[in-house]
Specification:
The complex is a heterodimer of chains A (175) and B (155).
Chain A: E1 13-15, E2 22-28, H1 33-49, E3 53-59, H2 69-81, H3 85-94, H4 101-110, H5 115-123, H6 128-140, E4 148-151, E5 154-155, H7 162-174
Helix pairs in contact in A: 2-3, 4-5
Chain B: E1 15-19, E2 22-25, E3 34-38, H1 50-62, E4 67-72, H2 76-86, E5 92-94, H3 101-105, E6 109-110, E7 115-116, E8 118-123, E9 129-135, H4 144-153
Parallel strand pairs in B: 3-4, 4-5
Antiparallel strand pairs in B: 1-2, 3-8, 6-7, 8-9
The chains are: A alpha+beta (175), B alpha/beta (155).
């Protein structure tokens, strides 16, 4: 059984109630179609569980098969530095089929971020280490592909459909 | 019934095609840790496929100076196309003829399906197996076990 080795910290992007009984963590890649498919699923879970669940996203870009995955992750981290992580996270998944510099600049504009500043941050690799740290932490925790979910520190190995995940989270909440 | 070779065993040597006109033998890599990753087949349909994952983690393996070898019963042309498609930066060995002979020698041949199990071996610089693991065939074992084994080699 694989267990989360990197505890939730202030470095994490957290959505939802800090005191929720359940923490759902996704290790994901903005270019991975399976993560794209999981994006609305996570939203459904958030809606269903409300204050009983919080959600955390960590980066796991498979850069050798997804040419825009690293840049997309850094774009989201840049947005995070301006308190716009979740807005960018959502937009990246919603525009997954158009990932690339043109889209990144467009999304930055949409969120009132400076595309020039973002471009410079990517060029200077300001957020490269952050993304790599997420990745290596994921490897240590047994992330074996994307998306990988952890429910309260335990890797989720069951099918990634709404009913099965609701049940798994209910089990954790029931203790 | 074959049994996964346990730690402490001398790793059976082999020479398998790595390109259409080149073979690679395990003994050539003596002096360095070697990771043998047996897997069922090329062209697994998921993004998080085991070989793609190891390809990403390669720099972590290289910190330990370890060589990673992927092995399946697929032929060398199939491996070549797969490696190119997935942009793999490590060798894939073709355990193709006699089919699965190396997998059998390591106790990881899945007879009923005619493919290799999903099994991992970490071999030390002297050619001794120091860690081995066989995963359920549908479960990608990830890499944390390999990294822990490589760290243990240095202790």
């Amino acid at each position: 059984m694989s267990t989360l080795k990197i505890p939730v910290s202030g470095q994490d992007h957290v959505q939802g109630n800090a005191k929720a009984g359940c923490t759902l963590i996704e290790y994901g890649d903005y270019e991975c179609p399976h993560c794209g498919a999981a994006y609305p699923l996570v939203q459904q879970l958030q809606k269903h569980f409300g204050k009983r669940m919080r959600f955390i996203f960590r980066n796991f870009p498979l850069t050798q098969i997804h040419t825009n995955a690293q840049a997309a992750a850094e774009v989201a981290e840049f947005a995070a530095s301006k308190d716009k992580f979740w807005e960018m996270h959502d937009l990246l998944f919603e525009n997954q089929d158009r990932l690339g510099d043109e889209l990144f600049a467009e999304l930055a504009g949409q969120l009132s971020l400076d595309p020039g500043e973002m471009h410079r941050a990517l060029k200077k690799k300001t957020f490269t280490d952050h993304v790599r740290t997420d990745f290596t932490g994921g490897v240590r925790s047994g992330v074996n592909g994307t998306p990988t979910f952890f429910i309260n520190d335990q890797r989720y190995n069951r099918p990634m459909d709404y009913d099965t995940m609701v049940q798994a989270i209910e089990e954790v909440l029931a203790g | 019934m074959s049994v996964l070779l346990p730690p402490g065993t001398q790793a059976p040597d082999f020479a398998l095609p790595v390109t259409p006109d080149q073979k690679l033998s395990l003994s050539e890599l003596r002096g360095k840790p070697v990771i043998l990753a047996f897997y069922p087949a090329d062209w697994s349909p998921v993004c998080g496929d085991q070989m793609a994952l190891y390809n990403e983690i390669l720099p972590e393996f290289q910190k330990h100076e370890a060589e990673l070898l992927g092995i399946s019963v697929d032929g060398v042309w199939c491996h070549t196309a797969f490696a190119k498609d997935r942009n793999l930066h490590f060798p894939l060995l073709a355990d193709f003829e006699p089919k699965g002979a190396v997998a059998r020698a390591y106790g990881v041949y899945f007879e009923a399906a005619g493919i290799s199990e999903r099994a991992l071996f970490v071999i030390d610089k002297d050619g001794i197996i120091r860690w081995s693991y066989c995963s359920p065939i549908a479960v990608n074992p990830g890499a944390e076990g390999i990294l822990e084994a490589l760290e243990a080699l240095e202790k």
